[in-house]
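Lab notebook, bench 4. Still working through the backlog of constructs that have no structural model yet. Next entry is a single chain of 198 residues. Request: give me the structure tokens for it.
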Amino acid sequence: MDSEQQKAGEKRVRDILINPLLDLGLSRPRGFTKVADFDKVVEKVICPKLAYMTAINLEALMEQVAANPDGKSGDQIPIPNKILAAAADIQPPDDDGSPLIRAVFAGDLGRDAIAGNFAPELLRWLKRQRPRRWPKGHDVTGIKMDAEAALRRIADIERRRSDGKLVSEADEAWLLSRRKASADCLRISELVKRDGAA
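Model written out:
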């Protein structure tokens, strides 16, 4: 996302999410004793982090947040972390937009995953975690086991092809999806190298 798209996205977040919530009469979240503190979080965190979202998904997020207010009287906007979590459920950020995913692929684990052909499974694991977190040793072991199963499936598909046997549409779609995920991992790795993170 370039700077103009980011700026337009941030305005969209304010217009479609933040302003309508305030117009409904919801007050700032608990813990924000000063209006300026909440305004700063909106400007520096919520709007920039959700700038990737489409208008329709922001409308859905606004509806969900408005229907589930916080506070004893149900009159407060939820804390920013709850809003960001709800947003990720409605429209997950692009793979290259997640700082966690970028950091993983900028480090040794990401480079090892690309070299060891388990990057698609690592990416899938990272995207499925709620809450998002860095993979630990036992997580990596499971990711590698998933990759071994995937590589066996690839070998089986290629063997059936070379024997002239039928390969199902489901297998073809799965193979295409894994190849796309591999390409996405390489793209993310190149992005972090280009941005100087690696």
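Notes after review: DSSP finds nine helices and no strands in the chain. The two ends are 20 Å apart (CA to CA). Flag for follow-up if needed.
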